[in-house]
Amino acid sequence: MPEMAGRLYAIVGPSGVGKDTLMRAAARRLPGLRLVRRVITRSAEAGGEDFESTSEADFARRLARGDFILHWQAHGLSYGIPADVLDFLEAGRPALFNGSRAMLAEAKAQFPALEAIHVTARPEILAARLAARGRESAEEIAARLARAKIGLPPGIKAIEIDNSGPLETAVEALVAALQPESAKRSMR
């Protein structure tokens, strides 16, 4: 894959850690940042993040057409990152997508300059957030909490952000991670 002028960022972490909340807050502060709208084989009524709902059959057709630059399976669903993000990157703009820890090695192989941002939170915080969103049963929440302990794939380096405390603290860390050159200039 050719080197892009813009930066591609993957934000990953367990369900309920606040990835989408952090992404929206960062986009409000960084108007040039593109939040990539994922395509997911999940019902539109499921709520939560801003995503494009599609059927498994439609997802398979789009995948065969080359409509996704990245795709993966998680939690019994198919996820895709639309290929139109390449136009944004070629125009020199940064793009951020909500990814999966399991797909990072493949994503990094395709996009060597990909920056990974790993968001974490204490288990009791995750449990409360998962229960509050009301999408999963108690058994599904327990399974998600067990998966939360899974780390990053071997060899993948990431910027770590703890979202256990005040949201503003984690937002500041994410905004700084998305502006590495500005952060370096301000430290001089």
How are the elements arranged and paired?
Layout: E1 8-12, H1 19-29, E2 34-35, E3 39-40, E4 52-53, H2 56-65, E5 68-74, E6 77-82, H3 85-90, E7 95-98, H4 104-110, E8 115-120, H5 123-133, H6 138-147, E9 159-162, H7 167-178, H8 180-187
Parallel strand pairs: 1-7, 1-8, 2-7, 3-4, 8-9
Antiparallel strand pairs: 3-6, 5-6
Helix pairs in contact: 1-7, 5-6
Pfam families: AAA_18
GO molecular function, one term: ATP binding
EC number: 2.7.4.23
If you had to describe this structure to a student in words, what would you say it looks like?
The chain is of the alpha/beta class. It has one domain: Rossmann fold (3-Layer(aba) Sandwich). Helices cover 40% and strands 20% of the residues. The protein has 8 helices and 9 strands. The strands form 2 sheets. The chain has a 5-stranded parallel sheet. A hairpin with a 2-residue loop joins strand 5 and strand 6. Helix 1 packs across helix 7 and helix 5 runs antiparallel to helix 6. The radius of gyration is 16 Å and the shape is globular. The termini are far apart. Pfam families: AAA_18 (PF13238). Catalyzes the phosphorylation of ribose 1,5-bisphosphate to 5-phospho-D-ribosyl alpha-1-diphosphate (PRPP). Its EC number is 2.7.4.23.
